[in-house]
Amino acid sequence: MHQAIQIAVGGLLQGCIFGLLALGFSLIYRVTAAVNLAQGAFCIFAALVTSSCEQAFGMPVMIAGLVGVAATAALSALLGAAVFVPGLARLPGSTMFILTVGLLTILQGASLVVWGSQSYTLTTFSGERPISLLGISIPTQGLWLIGVTIVITSALALLLARTRMGRAFRACAENPLAANLMGIGVRRMQLLSFVLAAVIGGIAGIVIGPITSFQFDTGGMYTMFGFIAAVIGGIGSPLGAVVGGLCLGLATQFAAAYMSSLFSNALALSLLLVILIWRPSGIFSSGPARRQDVRDEPRIHRAVIRLGLRRGLLLSAVAAAGLLGALPWGLQSGGLMSSVVITAILFLAVIGLDVLMGFAGQVSLGQGGFMAIGGYTASILAVRYDVPPLVGTLAGIALSLVCALILGIGAMRLRGLYLAIATLAFGLLVDSLTVGLENLTGGPSGLVGIPSFSLGGFVFDTPLRNFYLIAAILVVILTVLTAGMRGGFGRALLAVRADPLAAAALGVDVRRYKIGAFCICAALGSLAGSLYGFYFHFLSPEMVGTPISFQMLAMLVIGGEGTLFGPLCGVALITLLPTIFQPLAQYKTMGSGLLLILCALYLPSGIFGTAITWLMRMRPERGGVLAVRRSTP
Amino acid sequence: MNAPSEVPALDIRGINKTFGGVQAIFDASFSVAPGTVTALIGPNGAGKTTLFNLITNLLPPNSGSIQFFGQSIGQMAAEKIAALGLIRAFQTARIFPGMTVLENVAMGAHRLMKVPAYRQMLLSSAARREERDVRRRAEMLLDIAGLHGERNRAASDLPMGAQKLLEVIRALMAAPRLLLLDEPAAGLNDTETAELAAMLGAIRDGGVTLLVVEHNMSLVMGVADQIVVLDAGRTVAIGTPSEIRNNRAVIEAYIGREDG
Description:
The complex is a heterodimer of chains A (about 625) and B (about 260). With about 625 residues, chain A is mainly alpha-helical. Chain A has 2 domains: about 15-290, ABC transporter involved in vitamin B12 uptake, BtuC; about 320-550, no CATH class. Chain A has 26 helices and 6 strands. The relative contact order of chain A is 0.12. With about 260 residues, chain B is an alpha/beta fold. Chain B folds into 2 domains: about 1-85 and about 175-260, P-loop containing nucleotide triphosphate hydrolases (Rossmann fold, 3-Layer(aba) Sandwich); about 95-160, no CATH class. Chain B is built from 10 helices and 10 strands. Chain B has helices at about 50-55, 80-85, 100-105, 115-120, 125-145, 160-175, 190-205, 215-225, 240-245, 250-255; strands at about 10-20, 20-30, 35-40, 65-70, 70, 85-90, 180, 210-215, 225-230, 235-240. Chain B has a 6-stranded mixed sheet with strand order 6-7-8-3-9-10, sandwiched between helices. A 4-stranded antiparallel sheet of chain B has the order 2-1-4-5, with helices on one face. In chain B, helix 3 packs across helix 5 (about 125-145), helix 3 (about 100-105) packs parallel to helix 6 and helix 5 (about 125-145) packs across helix 6 (about 160-175). Chain B starts with 9 loop residues before the first strand and ends in a 5-residue tail after the last helix. The model of chain B has no long low-confidence stretch (mean pLDDT about 85). At the A-B interface, helix 19, helix 20 and helix 21 of A face helix 2, helix 3, helix 4 and helix 5 of B.
């Protein structure tokens, strides 16, 4: 009993952290209908600044904390004004999501450059000695945490319910246009909510700082758990955020204590998936659901880029010939060949993502999870049961398709970003399983001794052979998908993305098409994962984890959504450039975040799309590009 | 008019729809004979668009039955109804942004495309033939509508009037058996309205049954074979144009009672 109470106290503290993080999500969602995935990065930024002030200038922790909060406010105001608010005005919901992934990436990358990859902690606010209350020991920092949570939650609830600013916030949420006409500065309110959320995150980061250690990329994890807590509680509701956080905290702590610490995350994520499917608006739904459909309509502004068939074939033929012929001999020596193979494998996975996002308009944050399923299934079968690689790869694809169908059927009933949330939970669940099922997957240290891919006795054991294998697969996949996307199938997907209601009124089974696109996406992810394992002869959870899912999103947007070939530009840029210019490696994360933001805001058709548009405009009479639409909101 | 024994293209019996406490449609009943133009008229807020939404099942009715060529479609999903050939155009044109004009029209043929997606991907000759036919037919329709020169532009770049026209062409591309048009003349000038009237006649003569919501009375009187008048959710009158022109209830609904 005593032990249970002790665990409950631990869960309570953990829950306060999650709750504070969730508050930020709810506040921003309330005002802007966007989900800001950079939220967790602000916590870590505040904590890192505080730590530097403590160590470099010898400030007492409270003063240093104030500096940290001020710095967070300043940074968030800058990023909000330069990126987030302009994005809201012109991007559809799914791209906003990706824009904030860019913010998260850039913040983590910048933290890596400034603070390095070591971990930090802060000094406790009032001594190290825990207080003992009825035999239960509570660290004093925990009391600070509980206090701060109560103060911030009540302050926010009061602000939203009672003040003029709160009313303005709510008006922005209900109907931005009308709010604007009533004289409320909607953009200012959006910025204000963004900064306020970042400040809450910053305070949370500083209060948690002494309890847990943190490093440049801890923010990603904070984002996940804050977001999950917000969804469990009902995103948009401050009370729901805290309750969701407490539920999540207690569930993970009890699972860690009574089952296995390795599975505590898995349990939290299963909880999320169950809630998503059983009660999609969370425990406390925040009033009527937002009318995503209405809001999204005027914001769709995609460029229309269509390559004529002849030009398309010509371009592909040239590209294929170039890749197949010239590259390998030029690169045979050194590690570059290996990077080219990795690029090609990732390209395969990102093509899948393009079918889902660029054509069907759905966001998946779980492509890494499908890579993991494909990779581990094929590798485990090969290592432990001597199953031929081809059979293992097919088994991985089959398993991925089953998962995709279950997720798809569950999540596609719902509109908006639910697939994104469900795939995020799925990806994290796979992450924790690959770490947790140590006997099967080799756990965090990875699975070793994976054989090379082989086909009928021919072993693909050199980078060059692998390159040819993957190039051949790419040619087949791209041919098949180009044919599909140019015909009625791709057209129906585009229609589903542009206006699901009008598509249904023409006889399109919207759900079936979305799930079909999701299955293609999952199958390609799984295939890429299997090839990854066979190429490296080794597979570890971080090679196919959620951070990779985010990176692949960046690659897709940078390369160009809805172009099938475009992602190659994005993948190559992020994978190859740091290999060629070694000094750049340190800036890789930051650079990819920056590129992602720039492309999402200014090059909606990505590098490839923009290049093609530009190229074709020079000779429009030859009928390459059919039409170009500038982004006017 | 057609023989009474014929199965009606659309048969609506006792449809009710309430939003909260408001009864939007009250016991609506009428039928549409195949190969005719029926106009649905009534003052603003009479429930015309709501009725369209009920027929295409974008909204579920509270009670009543809807039959399409003798087949009950009251419980059917919207896309199934469309697949049967009951196609609608919306009041504010819902063209697909991010797609070209030609692609928008080709999209209309969705219900007619029978070759499965995997065979398209494998470049089967049947799939290519089907796609070629769809494109040819789409270009032909665009040509008739005078939009052929715009076929490769982004559809969302067209002016509003052209977008409405595009939506009608897209609907025709589906080879509808019954076509529902929601205020096709809204925003058109007199010349364009006359063209529209001619087009509606041509569509009917092509064998498509039409149900049209319209405010423009000269258009309605000119092309309609049957007029259904709706007021505050109730069917006030059903009849030929000349019957409706002299109907007291209709005049009251539009102008108000003479004795105040």
